[in-house]
Amino acid sequence: MLVTLDIQAYIPEVEKKYKLIDSTFNADFLEDDLRAFAKSINVVYLGLQRIFRQSFENMGVSLHWEHWNYEGHKVVANALTEKLKSFIDSNEQARGQNE
Question: What is d(CA 57, CA 1) in angstroms, rounded to the nearest whole number?
Fold first, then answer.
C-alpha cells in the first residue's frame, strides 16, 4: 500500500497563501500523481490530502500541530482502517470466487 501524507493546504487560508506565491498551485497534485502511479503498478493507494480537507470542512478544527494532533491521528486511523478493510474484503471475495 502506498500512502501519501497531507500538506497543510487542506486549510483554505493556507491554500490561498500558496496560490499567492504560485497561481497554479494545486494542493492535490502529489495525491493525483501518486494515485495514478500506484494504479499503474497495481498497488493499493490512500491519499490523505482530500480526506484531511473533508475532515476540516466537516469539523472545522485543525488537524496539525507540527505533526498531526489528536484529531489528525484519528482521521488517519479511520482512513487507514477503511482502506485496509476494503482491501481485505476485496481479497476475500476474490479468493471465494477462485475456490
Answer: 27
What is the residue type of 56? F
Given a cut of 50, the residues of the chain with pLDDT beneath it are none
Yes or no: say if 51 and 71 are a contact pair by the CB < 8 Å rule.
no
C-alpha span between 35 and 50 (Å, rounded): 12
Query: CB neighbours (10 Å) of residue 71?
Result: 15
The phi, psi pair for 44, rounded to 5°, reads: -65, 140
Report field, pTM of the whole predicted structure over 0.70? yes
Taking the domains of the chain in order of start, what are their residue ranges? 2-98
